[in-house]
Amino acid sequence: MSFSIEQILRGDLPRGGQSPPAAADPGLLPVSLRINGHDYHLQLESRVSLLDALREFIGLTGTKKGCNQGACGACTVLVDGERVNSCLTFAVMHEGQEITTIEGLGQPDNLHPLQAAFIEHDGFQCGYCTPGQICSALAMLKEVAQGDASLATSDLTKAEVDLTDEEIRERMSGNICRCGAYLGIVDSIRDVYEQQKGQ
């Protein structure tokens, strides 16, 4: 019977004529994440970002890695309905929370209204930032519906926010589009906002 160098270094040698099961890596933690309505049970290092857990361990590659330092917004996902830069938070911090990625919003034959609006209004060019833009826009519309003010809100005494183009640009300023499709992004968000107001 032969053993690899890795087995010897880990101490995975036979005892009493039997090979013991491989020891659990003490550097890994059991993590359960609820993503797009499904539960995922993982073994992760505590320093694995939510972004890397989504892309590398679960295979949900719609969430993009842009700057990996929270500056571009390409990795934006929703955590309990709030927008989060998934590159800046650890996966282990989100047990028990509902995580939504772009894959959880719509399907090709049943698009989310924001996805359909981005297509209709040319809200993207290369598409790399689009998943983060759409997740961020969805949370932004929720913030507006709750009456949350932004730096661009001119009248803080009103219960309802007037969603001007300036408001949209300010509220979406954490999401960069390197192609410069900002006019289409603003038009897409305004379209969905008007649809929601009409319901």
UniProtKB/TrEMBL annotation:
The keyword Membrane does not apply. InterPro entries: 2Fe-2S-bd (IPR002888), 2Fe-2S-bd_dom_sf (IPR036884), 2Fe-2S_ferredoxin-like_sf (IPR036010), 2Fe-2S_ferredoxin-type (IPR001041), 2Fe2S_fd_BS (IPR006058), Aldehyde_Oxdr_Iron-Sulfur (IPR052914), Beta-grasp_dom_sf (IPR012675). The keyword Transferase does not apply. SUPFAM superfamilies: 2Fe-2S ferredoxin-like, CO dehydrogenase ISP C-domain like. Residues 29-105 form the 2Fe-2S ferredoxin-type domain. It comes from the Bacteria. Keywords: Iron, Metal-binding, Oxidoreductase. CDD domains: fer2 (cd00207). Pfam families: Fer2, Fer2_2. This is Aldehyde oxidoreductase.
